[in-house]
Amino acid sequence: MSDEPPRTRVLDTILASKKAEIAALHAAPPPRATRAPSGGVFEALRRPEGGALRLLAEVKLRSPSAGALSTSLRPPARARRYAEAGATMISVLVDGPFFGGSYDDLAACRDALDEAFGAARPKLLCKEFILDPIQLAMAAARGADAALLIARLTSADELARLADAARALGLEPFVEVATEEELEAAERARARVLGVNARDLDTLAMDHARAERVLARADRAAARVHLSGLASADDVARISQGPADAALVGEALMRQDDPGPLLRVMVARAALR
């Protein structure tokens, strides 16, 4: 793998913003940890033989590809609805400029889930464009159990360093890949949770066939997660027939003022093989 991964125009804009945010985080007092990661992310996402596809539900107020999404429920209320409907994990976007999120949203979701479900709550994924360990420290301090690491944003060596830094904080590295080359980097980083993005970050188009090919090549000992583009219960049923252990549903749920009914149907279809 080359030391400098390919960039896209959208990513260049996001990463420039992110580097400024990272500088501000380093200039501020270090984050004070008030919530500890709970562990068990890999075990929660791993699909038992003959078992149901696990579903991750996303809290995302907007995105560059979709624009504004539903704001009828604040993030903690939406996270609670996801949990009530059977989500195994909840992904919380913390990027502000492009996705409308914040680390405060992550903390509020963790507090709401702890209050309602205690130790039985779904796991929490901090979804961010992570380039620096200070962002991992923020994720851990605000209640995440796992942190997203996007393989294409860094060199393979830097990905491995970030994964080690996440583990040192008690976070599970959730490594997102889109190609077989990125998959190799993730496996070198000893990632136990592998997310395969069906969205082409160059064009923002969906390519489920490519995602399924990469998923099939992934280490079967890992928890393999299909990311992006699932719009219906039929989509979930289709993915449940493949090699994935879990799948993330984002915009389809975020377009619902009440996501509970749709997610319940998706959970039911995820159990069909």
From TrEMBL:
InterPro entries: Aldolase_TIM, Indole-3-glycerol_P_synth, Indole-3-glycerol_P_synth_dom, RibuloseP-bd_barrel. Its EC number is 4.1.1.48. It is an enzyme of class 4 (lyase). One of its GO terms (molecular function) is phosphoribosylanthranilate isomerase activity. One of its GO terms (biological process) is L-tryptophan biosynthetic process. Keywords: Amino-acid biosynthesis, Aromatic amino acid biosynthesis, Decarboxylase, Lyase, Tryptophan biosynthesis. It comes from the Bacteria. The keyword Amino-acid biosynthesis applies. Pfam families: IGPS. Residues 11-259 form the Indole-3-glycerol phosphate synthase domain. The keyword Amino-acid biosynthesis applies. Pathway: Amino-acid biosynthesis; L-tryptophan biosynthesis; L-tryptophan from chorismate: step 4/5. It catalyses: 1-(2-carboxyphenylamino)-1-deoxy-D-ribulose 5-phosphate + H(+) = (1S,2R)-1-C-(indol-3-yl)glycerol 3-phosphate + CO2 + H2O. This is indole-3-glycerol-phosphate synthase.
